[in-house]
Amino acid sequence: MKTTQRLRLLLAYDGRPFRGWQSQAGGDAVQDWLEQAFLRVGGQRIVVHGSGRTDAGVHALGQVAHADVPRDFLPPAKWHAALNANLPPEIRVLRCVRAAADFHARFQARGKSYLYRIHVGPVFPPLEIGRAWHVPGPLDLGVLRACAARLTGKHDFAGFAANRGHAPTSTVRTLREIHLTARGPRLTLRFTGDGFLYKMVRLLTGTLIRCAQGRMEPAFLDTLLAGGGSPKTHFQAPAEGLYLARVLY
């Protein structure tokens, strides 16, 4: 008889105090805090598997993770409350449900959606610090939309990937949508795709803003897409404007 049950967690966190999602040698990653909470509640080490990494300073509205816990120890609703009682306020379990035994947060993910928030204007509101990128402006939103459309679709995004120390198996990804919402000085870019390379969203955002500022020719985007990683863009938007919004299954 199987002695464990698999829990599926929906998580949100403010990324500012943490060293990203993935467990670090010195601790203080979101995964470390979750595993410490499981240890306090259940009295044994439980490994938490996330849908993917987020970097230091990056936020999450809808990170997904799973963990195997003792079957008869607590029901999911009790785990939900107990974990939140043992987590810092910057990390919250939004939902905790029983999952199929073969559910895997990472390997079964079919895509992700990210938000990138930008504040355009000479004055940056203090409550946006750490939660958005301040771009003094001005930006040409027509150019921004046209360049976003240029990047949408199936491409080799090697020119928009940072080096993580090992090359990915493939750098071809399908970017289903880059949707721009503009409300006064606040811009939000939503990126939805079947997968993202290391720092790809931040490099896409930084390059799009560079084009909208008139500091890069939009035609250079085609060069980046066709180059197979040579040349690469180096215009990387800061971590604090980025949010993992949703994991698609």
Description:
The protein has 249 residues and is of the alpha+beta class. It has 5 helices and 10 strands, in the order βαββαβββαβββααβ. It has helices at residues 30-42, 76-85, 141-151, 200-212, 220-226, and strands at residues 4-13, 48-50, 59-70, 91-99, 111-120, 133-135, 153-156, 172-183, 186-193, 242-248. Helix 3 runs antiparallel to helix 4. The chain starts with a strand and ends with a strand. The model has no long low-confidence stretch (mean pLDDT 96).
Keywords:
about 250 residues, alpha+beta, Alpha-Beta Plaits, 2 domains, ten-stranded mixed sheet, 5 helices, 10 strands
Write the layout of secondary structure elements.
Layout: E1 4-13, H1 30-42, E2 48-50, E3 59-70, H2 76-85, E4 91-99, E5 111-120, E6 133-135, H3 141-151, E7 153-156, E8 172-183, E9 186-193, H4 200-212, H5 220-226, E10 242-248
Parallel strand pairs: 3-10, 5-6
Antiparallel strand pairs: 1-3, 1-4, 2-3, 5-9, 5-10, 7-8, 8-9
Helix pairs in contact: 1-2, 3-4
Write a concise synopsis of the structure shown.
The protein has helices at 30-42, 76-85, 141-151, 200-212, 220-226; strands at residues 4-13, 48-50, 59-70, 91-99, 111-120, 133-135, 153-156, 172-183, 186-193, 242-248. Helix content is 22%, strand content 31%.
**Main sheet: strands, sense, barrel:** 10 strands, mixed
Number of domains: 2
Tell me the series of helices and strands, N- to C-terminal.
EHEEHEEEHEEEHHE
Would you state the CATH class of the largest domain?
Alpha Beta
Overall average pLDDT: 96
Q: In total, how many beta strands?
A: 10
CATH superfamily of the largest domain: Pseudouridine synthase I, catalytic domain, C-terminal subdomain
Which segments are poorly predicted (pLDDT under 50) over 5 or more consecutive residues? none
Strand content: 25-35%
Coarse morphology: globular
User: What is the CATH architecture annotation of the largest domain?
Assistant: 2-Layer Sandwich
Helical amount among residues, as a percent range?
A: 10-25%
Structural class: alpha+beta
